[in-house]
Amino acid sequence: MSSDGRLVWNHSTHLPGLIPILEKLIECEGITTVTPGRIKQTRSHIPKMKLKVSVPIRGGYKMIARQGKTVQEVFILSTLDQSQLEQAIASLL
Q1: Which residues neighbour 88 within 8 Å (Cβ) at sequence distance 6 or greater?
Q2: Which of 75, 53, 65 is nearest to 5 (CA)?
Q3: pLDDT at 9 over 60
């Protein structure tokens, strides 16, 4: 575990319970920056927090965080490949 990562605070609102998970995620080796993105409402309901790696972006991945009827994009800059990132996320939930 390394604490070289940083969590960017660019929004005043976040999905409830997301920030503590992201703070643990930035301690993982290979993750440099985690940036929460836009929040959106959906029709379907997910009772527990769910994190899913969505698509690759330049230098990392876009992740989707869902809880209740709310979705938030999270951008992760990392040297990890997708399976390693998914394992790191699974170990936090």
Answers
A1: 25, 28, 31, 80
A2: 75
A3: yes
